[in-house]
Design goal:
580 residues, alpha/beta, Glucose Oxidase, domain 1, Enzyme I, Chain A, domain 2, 3 domains, eight-stranded mixed β-sheet, eight-stranded parallel barrel, globular, binds phosphoenolpyruvate, binds magnesium ion
Length: 580
């Protein structure tokens, strides 16, 4: 038996058999060839290109009815790149020169082409990098015809153990079969953690070396409430955890009794408690946990799940479904926030030293107006089917916002001309997750109807601490006085301009932060659906006067440790029901 402590990221207890998952199950082959084998290797390339082309043609034909002209052009351009004779020539030449297998040559040619496109300094050419990687992924898939073990194909219940997982792994895995997650890497606000909470899968991340101690088939326990993993538990330990699991489930059920009650403080301040979702399938859970609406729909998963850019029509259908299902409750859909760890499988946006600070989110969208406008059009078309709010992520300043609002207007006018009905009063808001936006929030507030503070990124950028990195997780501190002061500034600036301000980062669902956020003056909190009942119970147990009082005290303090200790003691004195 071995106990291992990590970062608790998703509550609940799972007891089951481990399944070790490694992204490297199939590594890209690397071997030397003789000059006599060049022709054979080139034939392999040629045949893989042909299969990739057939795949694109099939895709184009299958969805041609739903696709707009732009999406058609997008696929046509991939076909042209695939069949470009100079591409084949480069492969042939490098096969002869390097005498390596086709997979390695493909990697080196693509890398070379990427560098050249990057070096042009021309935006149009740089944007082609993403297309280049997309076609390369297709060719590689056909070259390595072995089938990768897919988490979507899991047939037996298991606890997923991995060094690290990508959001695309979690979104596409067979969620009915994964009852727990344990990984070496990862932090509390990583997207894998967020997804585990959304799908209500107990998870402990940041265990450092759990993969060294567990083998597929080992019995293990994942205790997401305590951040503990137990490998090969003895009889007594297992019995104790079976009891803990039952008690936890009972506690969860009791909290659901609050579903019909409002999140109202004892002195009558009503807080909007909403849910964050990644995929439309989460709506049942959102409603079951008594959410007042959806405060953050991370639309990028609509792109990550199928591994390609969806058509305007596909997006419209998804947005319409979510809006109709939640009606009359509001749904805040955030536009495409790709980048960082959220990548479309196999599509690398280009070589970047600092992807977290790089060509991502609205920066990517503004450089690909074709892709961005297909989303804006889909959102506007869906706006008449429910209570929609549109939210833009990663805004860093007013210029960016102006450019986005212009594209939104352009899309509205286009739809108007094409005869679509659109709700012209859709509230438009932005996320405050970049410090420069927070410091200029007085200026930005004049342009939008609401703010939502994205603490996951705001803290990352503010403290310069990677939210994914377990080694420096101790620095990722929501109660850092710098973070609290900045949040206060944003709230004051928003209220100064008469607009509401919410929070949709993970801090909004943290039981220790709830009273502080009330005292700071937030109007809305949006979190994983599973966290709503407990936060509601806290809100219903306090007054705004209590909350302002504790905020008054902590804003005088100098260190996060001091604040952490003070808040924990304050909470423990008043609440005995908090589970984690
Ligand atoms: C955030 O940054 O706080 C946020 C909600 O967005 P994401 O976690 O998707 O980056
Ligand atoms: Mg963010």
């Amino acid at each position: 038996m071995k106990f291992d402590k990590g970062i608790m990221v998703s509550p609940g207890i799972a007891i089951g058999r481990a399944f070790i998952y490694s992204e490297d199950i199939i590594s890209i082959p690397d071997y030397d060839i003789s000059p006599g084998q060049v022709a054979y290797e080139f034939e392999r390339f040629d045949s893989a290109v042909e299969k990739a082309a057939q795949e694109i043609i099939k895709l184009r034909d299958r969805i041609s009815n739903e696709m707009g002209e732009k999406e058609q052009k997008f696929l046509e351009s991939h076909l042209l790149m695939l069949k470009d004779p100079s591409f084949a020539e480069q492969i042939n030449e490098q096969l002869r020169r390097q005498e390596k297998n086709t997979e390695q040559i493909l990697l080196s040619v693509i890398e070379n082409m990427t560098t050249k496109l990057n070096d042009t300094g021309n935006d149009y050419f740089r944007e082609r990098i993403i297309d280049l990687h997309d076609i390369s992924r297709r060719i590689m898939g056909h070259l390595m015809y072995q089938k990768k073990i897919s988490l979507a194909d899991l047939k037996e219940e298991c606890i997923l153990v991995a060094h690290n997982l990508l959001p695309s792994d979690v979104i596409s895995m067979n969620k009915r079969m994964v009852i727990g997650i344990a990984t070496d890497a990862g932090g509390k606000t990583s997207h894998v953690a967020i997804l585990a909470r959304s799908f209500e899968i107990p998870a402990v991340l940041g265990l450092s070396d759990i993969t060294k101690f567990v083998q597929s088939g080992d019995e293990i326990i994942v205790d997401g409430n305590e951040g503990m993993v137990i490998v090969q538990p003895d009889k007594n330990t297992k019995k104790k955890y079976i009891g803990n699991k039952k008690a936890w489930q009972k506690h969860e059920l009791q909290l659901l009794n609050l579903n019909e009650l409002p999140a109202e403080t004892r002195d009558g301040k009503l807080i909007q408690l909403e849910a964050n979702i990644e995929v439309p399938e989460e709506i049942d859970s959102v409603l079951a946990h008594g959410a007042d609406g959806i405060g953050l729909y991370r639309s990028e998963f609509l792109y990550i799940l199928p591994g390609r850019f969806p058509s305007e029509e596909e997006q419209f259908e998804a947005y319409r479904y979510v809006l109709e299902s939640m009606k009359p409750k509001s749904v805040t859909i955030r536009t495409l926030d790709l980048g960082g760890d959220k990548i479309i499988p196999g599509v690398k946006p280009g070589d970047e030293t600092n992807p977290i600070l790089g060509w991502r989110s609205v920066r990517f969208c503004l450089s690909r107006p074709d892709i961005f406008k297909s989303q804006l059009r889909a959102l506007l078309r869906a706006s008449v089917y429910g209570n929609l709010k549109i939210m833009f992520p990663m805004i860093s300043g007013i210029e960016e916002l102006n450019d986005i609002l212009e594209l939104l207007d352009e899309s509205k006018n286009e739809l108007d001309r094409e005869g679509y009905s659109v709700n012209n009063d859709v509230p438009v808001g932005i996320m405050i997750e970049v410090p420069s936006a927070a410091f200029t929030s007085d200026i930005l507030a004049k342009k939008v109807s609401f703010f939502s503070i994205g603490t996951n990124d705001l803290i990352q950028y503010m403290i310069a601490v990677d939210r994914e990195n377990e080694r420096i997780a101790y620095l990722y501190e929501p109660f850092h006085p710098g973070v609290l002061r900045l949040i206060k500034l944003v709230i004051d600036n928003a209220h100064g301009q008469g607009i509401p301000v919410g929070m949709c980062g993970e801090m909004a669902g943290d039981t220790n932060s709830a009273v502080i956020l009330l005292g700071l003056g937030l109007d809305e909190l949006s979190m994983s659906a599973i966290g709503i009942p407990e936060i509601k119970k806290i809100i219903r147990s306090v007054t705004i006067a209590d909350a302002e009082d504790i905020v008054g005290s902590i804003m005088e303090m100098k260190s996060y440790r001091e604040i952490d200790d003070y808040v924990k003691a304050w909470m423990e004195e008043r609440f005995d029901f908090i589970s984690y």
